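Throughout our pipeline, every protein is held as a single compact record rather than as scattered files. Nothing more is needed to write down the fold, since each code stands for a local backbone conformation. For reference, a complete record is included directly beneath this paragraph.
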Amino acid sequence: QVQLAESGGGLVQAGGSLRLSCAASRRTFSRYRVGWFRQAPGKEREFVAAISWPGGATYYADSVKGRFTISRDNAKNTVYLQMNYLQPEDTAKYYCAQDNGLGQYDYWGQGTQVTVSS
């Protein structure tokens, strides 16, 4: 079973940038689709971005398209989420998750908080 650990969250002003990291405990992490999700207080968890395997195709929610970039470094078993032009509505706890190979995200990290001040 893979364990995921997010890092890189913090407090940033509107218009600023952060890079989140999702590090996995197993090398097989590189062979699965990985996604980023977020959940703001009082709201449901929502999809942010995903990167597939093989091929590395990327997918984004409309709300972050053009501002966020997902990437992966398979040698480091790590997936990144570069977030630029952050806005207060991006404030949430961000989670990474690994697909189980059957189209479902079965493995989740504990999350990292992102707070964007206006």
Observations:
- The chain is about 0% helix and 50% strand.
- The first strand starts at residue 4 and ends at 7.
- The two ends are 40 Å apart (CA to CA).
- The chain has a mean pLDDT of 94.
